[in-house]
Amino acid sequence: MDFSHPYGKPTKELKKKTSSTNTATVLFFCHSITKTNVPIKISSTFVLNNDGTFRTAEWLDDDTRIIFPVTESSITRTANLAPHVLVDKFKTYSPDTNALYDFFFERLDQWIAQADSKVATFLTIIKNTLQDEHLIENIAKSLYDNPIVENLTVSYKTDKGDTKSIDLSDVFLEFTIEQFNGLIDKSVTNYTELHQSYIDFVEL
Question: Who has greater pLDDT, 142 or 202?
Answer without folding.
Answer: 142
